[in-house]
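Justification of resources, computational component.

The compute hours requested in this renewal are based largely on the per-chain cost of generating structure records like the one below. Each record pairs the submitted sequence with a full structure-token output. That output is archived, and it is also reused by downstream analysis tasks.
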Amino acid sequence: MIKRMRRRVIIAAMLAFSAVIIMLAVLVNIVNYAVITGRVDETINGISTFESRMPDRDEPPEPRREPFKVHPDEESNYMTRFFVVRYNESGEMDSVSTEFVASIDDTKAETFGQRALSKKSDRGYIEEYRFLKQSVGNSTVIIFLNAIRERQYIKSLLIMTIVISLVSLLLVFVLVVILSRRAIKPFANNITRQKQFITDASHELKTPLTSIRTSLDVIELEHGSDEWTDNIKRQTGRMTKLVSEMVALSRLDEEHPLPTKEQFSLSNAAWEIADIYVTQAKAVDKTFDVDIEENLSLNGDKSTVQQLLSVLLDNAIKYSDPNGSIRFTVKKKRNKVRMEVYNTCHYDTPPDTEKLFDRFYRPDGSRSTETGGNGVGLAIAKAVVEAHGGTISAECPDGKSMLIKVKI
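The structure output for this chain reads:
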């Protein structure tokens, strides 16, 4: 239990921190991308304005009326590299302007232009170039701006945030693992004291219970039995059973509940328990069907597994409706042993199957009292299953049938 609690603390802390760090990393990169792309688009808009002031390309070439100037910083204007591709209304390339870029010739410019035309959006990235596609009269003008530095900056920040996030997660994981032991120490001490109390109380209770039972036997020998002695005997037996169950549950809650595990025949162990309850079911006129696969084996503790099966079958017989039916199945599927106990029942309100395995939970208090139930049996069953690394669940959708599934 302490290990599970510590593991849950670590998982919860790491999930919370991971969510925060991932959200921050994503937010930083989204904002950075939006800001950088916005600046690039501002430059493209400036280039568009600059190009609109150029003479008509159908006229003879003339010197530019003014130097390229978009940024307030002269050096930034000098470092701006772009080219322009124009298409006529027929979709044929009309002209290319590559005087502000050295690495692009007319052939490459046409290739970039065709790729931009094929895209649905008017803005986007093609390799290291940011493009703007716009209609000017009957022609289409596509401006390509070299944004390699900006894209490298975006990529560098992305890589840096990923690395920082991973390193932060690793450091936090180490700290959480170290500090989690101290965080759960008060709870661990409390659980240890509770276990010690249960153990001590059980030993203290066994002595007076044994004395009461012995005294009762003497009274019955001398004066015979009556309704009062029968009631004392019944309640004493119930108390003795509860003490034994609490001790068993306390042991299963220990850090190493099954110190010695061994391979045993699950098929034989299941049949040993099933034979006992087949007889009990017949005695109360209930149908009991058994389907146990042969040659099944399990690595674990045979006695606790048989205790698990006894709890489930005992509950199925006690809480099934009169003349009801019980079905006990043990199979192997997908490398897991599956044990199922089904019984018909009658609940006016279906029980809360999530709480069914909680200690002292009883879906129907009056019936549980009549049958001697105390709400500890299924808690023991769950502890046994978890000690073997398995899962247990219950289904009672309509209140007319109960199905308990065990997977190990």
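The longest helix spans residues 2-52. The mean pLDDT is 84.
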